[in-house]
């Protein structure tokens, strides 16, 4: 299957067809069918256990659906892995290495030569590439920002960010939001799972509400529709 229109802003870049993910008898995703457009900023909302992280892991190719299919630009998530930047709850960084040392390691995995790109992404998230302190001695907020830098390193077309603002101070979180908005405006497709959705009100294109493993609503605004979600 191919999706040529996925390269056009506003065209579907991701399609999910009746995606089910079971862990034993528990269904974390229950028949999710959806399309997401290229160049849009999506915020995934829902209570703990709603299926948000499982959905992100499925899009990233880290959780194989029990049934159903996922297409990213007409490819499976594994085939499209170079187009994906994933930020998980764990930082996926090496604690004994500095930020630059971490990014140099990941840069080699992506065949990125030189330090220019590593330095740029570190500065873009508000950190200093000259900082020699091991990542294990970073504050939690600094670790979050470095984890975002790792996800941005290979200039992916699609960003999948799971709680990127957790334990980040307000100013730094706002700076991260500004960076993500600029990337969306440049044509990237962004998914953010967060419990701090107010940070993205007026920035995100769509809020996607999940409940019990299903997408139950998709709304263009947060405040107006939050009451509707609570009523369900």
Topology:
Elements: E1 12-23, E2 26-37, E3 41-45, H1 52-59, E4 67-72, E5 84-87, H2 99-109, H3 116-124, H4 140-152, E6 158-162, H5 170-185, E7 189-193, E8 206-211, E9 214-219, H6 223-231
Parallel strand pairs: 3-7, 3-8, 5-6, 6-7
Antiparallel strand pairs: 1-2, 1-4, 8-9
What does this structure look like?
- With 232 residues, the chain is of the alpha/beta class.
- The strands form 2 sheets. The chain has a 6-stranded mixed sheet, with helices on both faces. A 3-stranded antiparallel sheet has the order 2-1-4, covered by helices on one side.
- It contains 6 helices and 9 strands.
- It has one domain (4-93, 156-231): P-loop containing nucleotide triphosphate hydrolases (Rossmann fold, 3-Layer(aba) Sandwich), CATH 3.40.50.300.
- Helix content is 28%, strand content 26%.
- Residues 1-7 have low confidence and may be disordered.
